[in-house]
UniProtKB/TrEMBL annotation:
Residues 1-15 have a biased composition (Basic and acidic residues). Residues 42-53 have a biased composition (Polar residues). This is Predicted protein. It comes from the Eukaryota. Residues 1-20, 32-53 are annotated as: Disordered.
Amino acid sequence: MAGKDEGRSPTDYGRRAHIFQESSRVFRALKERRDEDGGATATAQASNNTPHS
């Protein structure tokens, strides 16, 4: 999110709404993908990130 935030001008609200909309779309797609996989991918990734003794 580059750019200087100079307050509450109407253009700031539009920019923030756009960022929120895109973020929501991305996270919804990730959740749907995770749900379709049955969580297997997330579980595998978590086990790969676990430190081994």
